[in-house]
Each structure stands twice: as structure tokens, then as C-alpha cells.
Amino acid sequence: MEISYWVSVVSIVLLFLVSGSFSIDNFHQAFPIVEPDPGHTKLRLSREGLEAISRITTPIAAVAVIGPYRSGKSFLLNQLLSLSCYEGFGVGHMRDTKTKGIWVWGTPLELDIDGVRTSVFYLDTEGFESIGKSNVYDDRIFALATVMSSVLIYNLPETIREADISRLSFAVELAEEFYGRVKGQDVAFEPAKLLWLIQRDFLQGKSVKEMVDDALRHVPNTNGDKNIDQVNQIRDSLAVMGDNSTAFSLPQPHLMRTKLCDLKDDDLDPIYVKKREQLKELVASVIRPKIVQGKPLNGKEFVSFLEQILEALNKGEIPSTGSLVEVFNKGILERCLKLYSERMGKLGLPMPEQSLRDAHERSREEAMKAFDEQHFGRHHAKRSAEQLDEEVKEVYKNVIMANEYQSSKLCEALYTQCEDRMDQLQVLRLPSMAKFNAGFLQCNQSFERGCIGPSKANYEQRMTKQERWSSIQFYRLRVLESISK
Ligand SMILES: Nc1nc2c(ncn2[C@@H]2O[C@H](COP(=O)(O)OP(=O)(O)OP(=O)(O)O)[C@@H](O)[C@H]2O)c(=O)[nH]1
Ligand SMILES: [Mg+2]
């Protein structure tokens, strides 16, 4: 009795765990949404954080904080959310674990943005440049945060270094690929607004704007150094994206770095507290819901968007904007392929080969035009267009086969009819040659009218052979008849 009781308890618990149906009842905590895989090179989704997001039915916006490791990202997020280190994101010195992957605070801030109630999630990310992981991993975290968020806070402990600019190459590529209008359409996908946050008042008399402008100014490259050239190019693009980036500085909250978590607002530097409040207002004033293809995403859609993006970023050795463009274009590509298939499906088969070719060309052009009008991406969309063309060809091959099959079925039936008719005419007693020929002519005419498509030529040959063979047979029978008389 006792054993069977425990067996059933254990099975219920196991069933519960396997089905994954237990739900979180306290969202006042931080959850991982993305975690490193065991090799610490790729990323994988984490269920709890996604559950916190997918329950939201209003449009979603996200603020992500990125930056070098141990630069105070988690502490800053707690400050922005008015949380102590003990309830909010894990802060370095007090917990063994530093931030791994990407975390979300389970309860979004509700904001009214242009009259629309929006849930703003705050995301904490794993710091760059810590030992024991690859640059590619850092790039994946960075790329994911850039694509997911509406405001990307680049937290810098001191100043902007060359490496920080280089890291933005992905954001720049992304912006170049997605910004602006695609052939008269509304902005299809807007990457995050960049907020340079310089911590610790390291400005030495410069304003933070001057500092960012200085960092984005071209560096002379008299020796034609390739690396300087590359960073200069990123600087140019960042300058072009100018209105999409802002700079802000925060002084040290307190000199006692390791005691920060135990200090209340009254103990912190009043200038820090004042500027922190200004930063909250700044974030609230620039944030917008995440729009994908002209539509704000609710929680569930945001999660599925995240799943697709993550899959694309994990693809291949390095995260690339090309694979992201493919993700965005996937749905459009499927719709255009469906349009082609529907057009071709309406054709009455069998039909002559040339007419089928013409119909294919017309439908293909229509599908390619629809794709051209709706697609994402400036440079990488070509790949998706080529893929659509390939998939159209595959469907066309099947239509050709169906046409061949229908044509041969129809012609075969007509041919067999003629064959039977000829057999009947041959065996009739005393049929005249004229009657025989008239019978064949009638049969041939209905064959010519009825047999359509690629099998026609083949069956026409067979008809000619049959005519010859039937005539011979006809004479043979007549000769035999006259002998027997
Ligand atoms: N002096 C000073 N220390 C800070 C500041 N912000 C955070 N710290 C301290 O820096 C240490 C690391 O802070 P975290 O917030 O965990 O840093 P992080 O960037 O999230 O670190 P990772 O998750 O490992 O990348 C902690 O001891 C914080 O108390 C700051 O603005 N000034
Ligand atoms: Mg952290």
C-alpha cells in the first residue's frame, strides 16, 4: 500500500515535470530567457523567462543593457527598476554567479506610449570580454539584444574604446539592412535606439555628447591600416544613424563599490540619484513598442520572434545579418510561393506545353513582384529572392509532371477508343473500304480534338501506326474471305 502510494506520487511529479505544465506564480523576480549551451558558444532558450513574457497581451517593448563584464549592468538595471540587489538581478560581488546569457525582470513596467498601453521589459545580458568564452558568443548575445530591444543601453565603465565601436559593426549592418523604407513601404523593422551610457563621470570636463562625438570622429589613417579603415567605416555609419543614438552619463553612486547593495537612496551620491531619475525619464521618452512588419508584437508573438531570431543567430559559425534577413523574409516568401501555387492550381490540366510555360511565366512574375514589394533587407534580400525562384521551379516541375500524367491519361483513353473501333470495323462482314476509312477518319478527328498536352505527339505516332496496321489487316481479311468463297 505504502509503496504504491509513493509510486503514484512520484509518477504525478514526473508527469508534471515532463509536461512542463507547472506555471510560475511569482513574477516579481528575474528569470533567464536565453542561456549559453554547454560549450558556451551558442545560445538556447530558457522556459521560465519566456513564460513571463508570453502571458502579456499588450504590445511589448524591451530595454536591454549591454557592456563589458563587471561594468555594473545588473546594478544599473536594479536601480532603473527600483529594486534592491537582493530582489532584482544578481549583482557581481554579492552572488557567486555573474550574469549568464540574457535575463528578464518578470514584471514589466506599464507605460502609455502614444496612447497605447505598452509592457516594457528590462533585459540584463552577460558581459563582454570575460575570459573563457569566444568573441562569437559575445557577438551572439549582442546581436540578440540589438534585435530584441527597443532601447539598447551600452553601459561603459569609463570611456568609449575602439573595441566598443568595432562591436557595433553588427548593429550598423543591421541598421543598414533594415532601416528606412523598402520601396515605399512603412518601416518594416526598426532596430534598437542606442543609448551610450558612460558611468563614473570620467568625462574630464567634456560633455558626454562631446565625448561620443570625439569617439565617432574619423581617425587619420595615413598608412592605410585595414583595421582603422574598418572602424572608421563603422564610425561613419553610426554618425548617419545619429538621431537614433543618445548619450548620457552617470557619476559614481558611491565610493564603496562592494557596499553598494546595502546602501539606500539617502546614502548614495545625490547627483547620482538625480541623474538616475533623469535616465529613467529619458528611457521612457524614447522607448517604442517593438514593431515587426508594421505590427506591434504581443507577448506570444515576441517569444516566437525571439525563437526565430535565435535560430538564425545560432546558424553557422558567426552570427550574420544575412541569416536574420532570411528569418524576416520567410513568411513573405511562403505567401508568395502560395500565390504562385494557387495561380497554377487553377489551370485546367492537361494543357499544351507552350500554354503551361506561358502560365508559369505569368504566375512566377506575379509572385516575384509581390516579394519585391514586401521583402525585408537591402543587401541580403537577393538570397531570399533566389530561394523563392528555386521553390517556384520545384512547384513548376510538379505541375509539369501532373500535366504529363493527365495528358497521357486522356490521350491513352482516346487512342484505346479508336483501337476498339478499328477492331470492330475489321471483323464486320463485308464492310466496304469507304466505310472503313470513314470510321478511321471520325476516330482520328475526335482524337485530334480531344488529345491535348505533352503526350499528343507520342499518341499521334501510335495512331498513324495503328491506321497502317488496321489497313493491312483489313486487306488481309478481305483476301482470306475471297479465297474461302
Ligand atoms: N564603483 C562602482 N561600482 C559599481 C557600479 N555599479 C556596480 N558596481 C559594482 O560593480 C560590481 C559588479 O556589478 P554588476 O552589476 O554585477 O556588474 P555586471 O556588469 O552586471 O557584471 P557581469 O554580469 O559579470 O557582466 C559590483 O560589486 C557592484 O556593486 C558603479 O557605478 N560604480
Ligand atoms: Mg550582471
From TrEMBL:
Residues 57-177 form the GB1/RHD3-type G domain. Pfam families: GBP, GBP_C. Keywords: GTP-binding, Hydrolase, Nucleotide-binding, Signal. It comes from the Eukaryota. The keyword Transferase does not apply. The keyword GTP-binding applies. Residues 1-23 form the signal peptide. SUPFAM superfamilies: Interferon-induced guanylate-binding protein 1 (GBP1), C-terminal domain (SSF48340), P-loop containing nucleoside triphosphate hydrolases (SSF52540). Gene3D superfamilies: Guanylate-binding protein, C-terminal domain (1.20.1000.10), P-loop containing nucleotide triphosphate hydrolases (3.40.50.300). GO terms for molecular function: GTP binding; GTPase activity. InterPro entries: G_GB1_RHD3_dom (IPR030386), Guanylate-bd/ATL_C (IPR003191), Guanylate-bd_C_sf (IPR036543), Guanylate-bd_N (IPR015894), P-loop_NTPase (IPR027417). PANTHER family: GUANYLATE BINDING PROTEIN. Belongs to the TRAFAC class dynamin-like GTPase superfamily. GB1/RHD3 GTPase family. This is Guanylate-binding protein 5-like isoform X6. It comes from Durio zibethinus (Durian). The lineage of its organism: Eukaryota, Viridiplantae, Streptophyta, Embryophyta, Tracheophyta.
